[in-house]
Specification:
By secondary structure, this protein is of the alpha/beta class. 40% of the residues lie in helices and 15% in strands. It contains 16 helices and 14 strands.
Length: 431
């Protein structure tokens, strides 16, 4: 550890929060189970562009970007101006606002599968809505899943975080493996004529193998099911039309969230007209679904993506991160415990066990040392339009210091003694 950088105010806020808020916050991945208490910032007070300031006043280059909800950068001026203008007009009304139409039209113009759109507030709303209308469209109940699709019963019941989900619901969701078409074929063979939807993240840690997405599409249609791409993260980030545009495979339905509104709460289900029309019968309705500030933010985001090289810059800056990190892993002899994967817009530092140390001990040291150097990252590099060349250079300088430190700690058996906190414990794996 390079210096003692206490996070006293963050820890005091956590103690205060735990008296009234289960877990101390609203989001599992922002909580103290994901950040090592004693060696990490726990609360952020403000952010601008690509930087954030924690409750103790420390500044960070932010490569978490609100779990990929921020794609343009914090407090993007165009988004802020649009929201301020809409605030004067009103936040929500007794009837729909025309801005609902304007944002839906923009999504349909940009996304290959989109012929109609409905809005929610979280990615979980959108994936649950897509699954519900797929069940209504097919008259079937079972769902095949690959990736992370939110907190609602239909999906989370298939994971280890299934406490409170009825057994009958858990038994309707079945996982298959990414880049393994045979695992999906096996589900269709096991449940002939019973699978309503196949839902997957078109890409997360790894690129799709040649023919994989096409094979999923063909197999899904062959068995009369609905193909859903969960583009909560990839949408409007990997390409203007999402991963489906990047990879040239069009699903029946797609779901969006995260960066759609640059941090404002908005999600969307989009897809084929004949399926989406069922939204007139299937109940998918939110008092706040037409809330106008988030829609104004989304309109500004989509217009900026069309007007400026947002996707191109995010990709270019992310490519610098991947190339620089790969070179440093090799140069510093860190390939025994680290590797890089993912798309430039959303890349991963993959850590693994380094005997006698578990991946959780290795990860704790990594986080501790990156935070100490002013880098806010959780092992992914969630790029935004605001990340500058200087930000990328600072990240790579931090890796130049942290990777050899980790290598030496493992080689000399001193990793535990270098930690200023208890190691993290195994968590629910979302992917």
């Amino acid at each position: 550890m390079i210096a003692n950088r206490p996070y006293a105010r963050s820890e005091a806020l956590l103690d205060r929060a735990l008296r009234h808020i289960p877990l101390g916050t609203q989001t599992f991945s922002k909580s103290a189970v994901a950040y090592p208490v004693g060696a990490a910032p726990l609360y952020i007070e403000r952010a601008a562009g690509s930087h954030a300031w924690d409750a103790d006043g420390r500044e960070y280059v932010d490569f978490v970007n609100a779990l990929l909800a921020v794609s343009l950068g914090y407090s993007d001026p165009d988004v802020t101006a649009a929201v301020r203008h809409q605030l004067d007009l009103g936040v929500i009304f007794s009837l729909p606002s025309p801005i609902e139409i304007e944002v839906a039209e923009r999504i349909c113009a940009m996304v290959p599968c989109a012929e109609m759109v409905r809005f929610g507030k979280n990615g979980s709303d959108a994936t649950a809505g897509a699954v519900r209308i797929a069940r209504g469209f097919t008259g079937r109940e079972h769902v095949a899943v690959c990736g992370y699709h939110g907190w609602q019963d239909w999906y989370i019941g298939s994971t280890t975080r299934n406490l409170g989900v009825p057994k009958a619901v858990r038994e309707l969701t079945h996982s298959f493996s990414y880049n393994d078409l045979s695992s999906l074929e096996a589900l269709f063979a096991e449940l002939p004529g019973q699978i309503a939807a196949v839902i997957l993240e078109p890409m997360n840690v790894a690129y799709p193998a040649q023919g994989f997405l096409e094979g999923v599409r063909d197999l899904t249609h062959e068995h009369g099911a609905v193909l859903v791409f969960d583009e909560t993260i990839t949408g409007f980030r990997f390409a203007k039309g999402g991963a489906q545009a990047l990879f040239g495979v069009t699903p029946d339905l797609a779901t969006f969230g995260k960066g759609l509104a640059n941090g404002y709460p908005l999600a969307a289900v989009a897809g084929r007209r004949d399926i989406m029309k069922l939204m007139e019968e299937v109940f998918f309705s939110f008092t706040m679904g037409g809330e106008t500030l988030s829609l104004a933010a989304a309109k500004a985001v989509l217009d900026k993506i069309e007007r400026e090289p947002v996707i191109e810059r995010i990709t270019a800056q992310g490519e610098k991160v991947i190339a620089g990190l790969k070179e440093r892993i090799a140069r510093h002899g860190a390939d025994g415990f680290a590797s890089v994967s993912g798309h430039p817009a959303w890349s991963f530092l993959n850590l693994r066990d380094a005997p006698p140390y578990t991946v959780w001990q290795v990860r704790t040291l990594y986080l501790q040392e990156m935070f100490a150097r002013g880098m806010l990252c959780l092992g992914t590099h969630n790029m935004s339009y605001a990340h500058s060349d200087e930000d990328v250079a600072r990240l790579l300088v931090a890796y130049d210091e942290v990777l050899p430190l980790m290598r030496d700690a493992i080689a000399t058996g001193t990793l535990d003694s270098r930690l200023s906190c208890a190691p993290l414990v195994p968590l629910f794996r979302v992917r």
